[in-house]
Amino acid sequence: MTVRIATWNINSVTARLPKLLEWLEGARPDVLCLQELKCSTDAFPYNAVAELGYETAAHGTGRWNGVAIVSRLGLEDVVRDLPDQPGFLADDAMLPVVEPRAIGATCGPLRVWSVYVPNGREVGHAHYGYKLQWLETLRDTVREDAAAARPFAVLGDYNIAPTDEDVYDLAAFEGQTHVTEPERAALAALRETGLQDVMPRPLKYDRPYTYWDYRQLCFPKNRGMRIDLTYGNKAFADAVTDAYVDREARKGKGTSDHAPVVTDLDL
């Protein structure tokens, strides 16, 4: 059985709906994990996606977060939010808010999570501590599935570049989030559960970044970061036949500032 699974920070599923539908028709993934929906659960364009043969499990509040799993292999055992997921206490809030940043489901032979890891904002900011706490909870959540025999993966926008090679210029990020040692240590702890980055090494493509800022011609100049990742357990990783970043989806007007990351499996 061949399976194509992908992850994409869509940066507003409503604004990018034509791009999403075009990409689904062209790439034909069996499972697509989406992040940064920027719409409520009820407002997701279920019908438009269903016309292409997909069902969707979505989780959003209509603000800056939101995640979904789109599948034509079925959707079972859907879980919204990580168990014991931490919330973030914003400056204008009375209580911490558990944001819609994680959704899990079984899609045919696969168990997957779509995750949108907190940005962290600035080193030392409360959001940075929240990010590290959130990653610790993610590690605890996936530990059992990571060790299981069933193919399992955690896909999404991790908001962390795993290595220095995953940013166009390390000096440009000095002292900023996404490249700090505590963040990378949190990724390492996640891998220690039995997960691995399935992007091939050495890299099949030169610097396969997944995110480029809209400003300062970052995409044409390839000033990007690889922060959208697919972490799979041994059963998942052993089945990988190809993994790549679809840069074509980032080209043109009206695109997300992220590109889809695609993984092909032979199960």
TrEMBL record:
<protein>
    <submittedName>
        <fullName>Exodeoxyribonuclease-3</fullName>
        <ecNumber>3.1.11.2</ecNumber>
    </submittedName>
</protein>
<dbReference type="InterPro" id="IPR005135">
    <property type="entry name" value="Endo/exonuclease/phosphatase"/>
</dbReference>
<dbReference type="InterPro" id="IPR036691">
    <property type="entry name" value="Endo/exonu/phosph_ase_sf"/>
</dbReference>
<comment type="similarity">
    <text>Belongs to the DNA repair enzymes AP/ExoA family.</text>
</comment>
<dbReference type="InterPro" id="IPR037493">
    <property type="entry name" value="ExoIII-like"/>
</dbReference>
<dbReference type="InterPro" id="IPR020847">
    <property type="entry name" value="AP_endonuclease_F1_BS"/>
</dbReference>
<dbReference type="Pfam" id="PF03372">
    <property type="entry name" value="Exo_endo_phos"/>
</dbReference>
<keyword id="KW-0460">Magnesium</keyword>
<keyword id="KW-0479">Metal-binding</keyword>
<feature type="domain" description="Endonuclease/exonuclease/phosphatase">
    <location>
        <begin position="6"/>
        <end position="258"/>
    </location>
</feature>
<keyword id="KW-0378">Hydrolase</keyword>
<dbReference type="InterPro" id="IPR004808">
    <property type="entry name" value="AP_endonuc_1"/>
</dbReference>
<dbReference type="GO" id="GO:0008311">
    <property type="term" value="F:double-stranded DNA 3'-5' DNA exonuclease activity"/>
</dbReference>
